Amino acid sequence: MKRDLADPSSGHAWPGTAVMYCKLTRGHVPVHASRSPGSPVVGCLEQGGAANWFVTEMKGETYRDGTAENNWWASTHADNGRWGWTPEVYFAGGGNYEDDAGLLTPGSYTCANTCAPVPFWAR
Question: What is the largest CA-CA distance in the chain?
Answer without folding.
Answer: 47
